[in-house]
Specification:
Elements lengths: L1 H22 L6 H8 L3 H7 L3 H25 L4 H14 L4 H8 L7 H24 L5 H20 L6 H17 L1
Helix pairs in contact: 1-2, 1-6, 2-3, 4-5, 4-6, 4-7, 5-7, 5-9, 7-8, 8-9
């Protein structure tokens, strides 16, 4: 029974990722989740109490995977600047990934305070990854620089997500150049 529930929960999360990636926030409804998974709508409520709970679970499951991919890219980079570049490039490469698209599809205003805090903490963990690399460049305030660097990444993510006139590769290159020039000061 526990294995069946676990499989159903995973199927619901996968369906939620697809719905959010395909149609954004409006597409994530319990009837749509039920239809995608073949469950009765009332059964969806047995797993999640609200859309915010679905998103919170997606963040709890997907964010660590995303962060591990960024960390792995940084681990193979040689030197502080290469690690910083890997940090930026890997995050922007993940923009098209369904896991990432699902997480950014829901605005924080739709989540309760607890869910927003969990997402903020996870995001803080991502920013913490780059602090040592920034310290390695001799930056006087690596924590502040890490937060500002992530702001550049976040802006590039939004630009890519909007389907901006620029090619995603051009956005990535511009973000990398801006970050590295800023780090070099």
């Amino acid at each position: 029974m526990a294995e069946h529930r676990s499989m159903q929960r995973a199927a619901l999360l996968d369906a939620a990722r697809s719905l959010l990636s395909e149609g954004g926030t409006e597409a994530l409804t319990f009837p749509a989740l039920a239809e995608r998974t073949g469950l009765a709508r009332s059964s969806v409520y047995e797993y999640f109490r609200s859309r915010a709970a679905v998103v919170e679970e997606l963040c709890a499951v997907d964010f660590p995977v995303w962060a591990a991919e960024v960390e792995a890219a940084m681990a193979v980079a040689d030197g502080p600047e290469a690690k910083i570049e890997a940090y930026v490039r890997r995050q922007l490469a993940l923009v098209g990934d369904r896991r990432h698209r699902a997480v950014v599809a829901i605005s924080a205003s739709e989540l309760d305070a607890g869910a927003r805090e969990k997402i903020r903490a996870a995001h803080g963990g991502l920013v913490a990854m780059i602090v040592d690399a920034l310290a390695g460049t001799g930056h006087r305030e690596p924590r502040l620089a890490a937060m500002l660097l992530q702001g550049v990444v976040d802006a590039a993510v939004r630009r890519i997500e909007l389907g901006a006139a620029e090619d995603p590769e051009a956005i990535t290159e511009a973000a990398v150049v801006m970050v590295l020039r800023g780090v070099r000061g």
